[in-house]
Amino acid sequence: GYQSLRQLVKLSKLEVPEEITRVIEPIKDNDAAIRNYGIHQAVEMCRVLLDSGKVPGLHFYTLNREVAPTEVLRQLGLWIEDPRRPLPWAVSAHPKRRVEDVRPIFWASRPKSYIYRTQDWDDFPNGRWGNSSSPAFGELNDYYLFYLKSKSSKEALLQMWGEELKREESVFEVFTCYITGQLNRNGHKVMCLPWNDEPLAPETNLLKDELEKVNRRGVLTINSQPNINGKPSTDAVVGWGPAGGYVFQKAYLEFFTSSENVNALLKVLKKYEPRVNYHIVNVHGRNLTNAHEMQPNAVTWGIFPGREIVQPTVVDPVSFMYWKDEAFALWIEQWAKLYEDESPSRMIIKYIHDNYFLVNLVDNDFPLESCLWRVLDDMFELLDAPLETLADGMSGDGSHGNGTLAE
After folding, report:
1. Containing H/E element for 62?
2. Which end of the chain has less neighbouring CB within 10 Å, N or C?
3. Domain boundaries, given as residue ranges, for the chain
């Protein structure tokens, strides 16, 4: 509007050309007219610059007002209504990473963290992840976790995650509200979690009902994707890569849950092998898996005209052990530390950190309806059964493959 223009002129100490003043004085009380005139002037100026052949591009300072710059770009024919993702994850602009096209799925919601932890790599995976016997992820330290802290203030986080936690179920409610978008018991919307600093991805909405159900019962999900069998690469929700291709995904689910739940889960998983791969770890490094300990599993891939198959996302067992350190640390660094030392709220988060397990599940049979929800339904059914049913048949040392967590 007119007042904004006067303020900018005052701050910049620039004079407004007479021909512009003559036009805007009669319409100074009409903000929409002022904006439309400014858009017209900007479009004409941009056309002169672009037509000169000396200007390769344009940079706009929006001042957090996106309406006018967007309209300028539309009128110039430079606004892309449907920006296509080159890969399922946000591509880094760093020249060193220009060939990178494969990442572990674990950092899907923490891309800045992944870039930070791999910034010292000389080469980045291209074409395939390979056999990652020793990926050199940057060490986890307090500075690193502070550097990558949530964008929200402490006050906002307490409103979302609870000024006071009374029991473990209070944490379940936070996760559930994040999934559903419903207000929490204090009337606030949960817009983020320590592992997800943004609202839900569009493809996660495809799983919302199932995710709500399991989070209410203490399966605290931090990463998921639906199975996809040959959707067009232009699909608005799951599409990526150039047009004319087809994309595929294996169903994936990652969550924290109690040792009691894991005991039941391990028993249930026996009847889903080899269809389902699992990897289960705790903060101390207790490690249970039925996957090859060095072999990555491609969970997202695409087929495009004139190109080899692209596999941009993998579940890598070696990387998972690096990720688990970060995933567990976030309980303390971003959540527990919101509360006073020794407070009940802090002790609840610390208990979860110390006693829960981090689990990932992959359903390898992607053309069929995902069985991961049936796996969890079976787990809940077993938990609801008499105790002797759960105890029956549980044996083994729990170090690798199916077994019990009991010491």
Report:
1. none
2. C
3. 2-76, 103-391
